[in-house]
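User: Fold this; tokens only.

Assistant: Input:
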Amino acid sequence: MFAAGLLAARLLSAQTPKPEPDTIELTDGEKLIGQLEQSNGSSVKFKSDILGELTIDWSKIKELHTSRKFAVLPKNIDLKKNANVSSIPQGTIAETDQKITVTPPPGPAETVPVADANQLIEDTAFLNAVHHNPNFFSDWGGSVTAGASLVEATQESRTFTGAITLLRIVPDEDWLRRRNRTQVDFSFSYGTLEQPATPVQSAESVRTDIYHGDIQRDEYLSNTFFVFGQASFDHNFAQGLNLQQTYAGGLGWSVIKRANETLDVKVGGTYVRQEFVTASADQNLGGSTFEEDFTRGFKRGIKFTEQLIIAPAWTNTNALTAMGSANLTIPVYKRMNFNLGTIDNYLHDPPPFFKKNSFEMTMGLNYTLR
């Protein structure tokens, strides 16, 4: 019975014709055969049978023809989840003279100038994205980073660093209006430095002990504006900080939201509870938070991220806190990357004998989850 079922599946597969290849003719006369993957307002992503994946400017394309159906999204469209997409041109694509002709199976063709087309998306992927409603436990992505160093000499040093970032954006397509974004972060840096007894010095030990965790939730009111809530927890032995709890909420603005570049700014109010190694320095603070988050993608999958948070306290104007971080991720093999990062934590009024700044520079391997 199993053999019969396998034979039937093979016969069915053999009877299903493969779609005709898509073709591109460039302005210099060169012709490419393969599959159109997608397009934005300035270029086309095309997978050539011979040359592999290519990105080609629209200005260099003389003609383009597809046998598969695509959806052509015009510029300045505000498309929501589960929206009625009957007005979106969908069908096979033929482009000549910087004009895209969309031919749906049952209806008349429609022409869209290339200058007015924001996205070309394969039709099935387009419909699935518009009508996809994930539950809370699906569509998570993120990364895991780890690094370590060991020294065995007159001094014995051990340092371990790590970070976990989980990110869920609904929907995660750039051409759909964003509904919400949830991010969970955890990072740590732990190290010891020991110097065994010498003729002039007894054994000594120095410890580095820094932990950070936070969770953030953004709910979008429009394509660019959102409200946010976040909670963060910090322990920094280097600054005499046993635990800092920060709870914040306010308004945010996605100033830039492109496939390879984003910039968000946030303004809100905060409640901060600080507990130090010196109990008399403990305090509760009410204040504000000003935050900016920037990401930029480069060629070959290189990615740069940067964050700056400044949180002045109004109940004690001497108790300003701030944090700045920057990370550069360079692909190494498949989902494995090399990560170079810096973190600077600032407390304006740490306990006596502790410095205001705590600066870290880390290197390690990073694994992308999705």
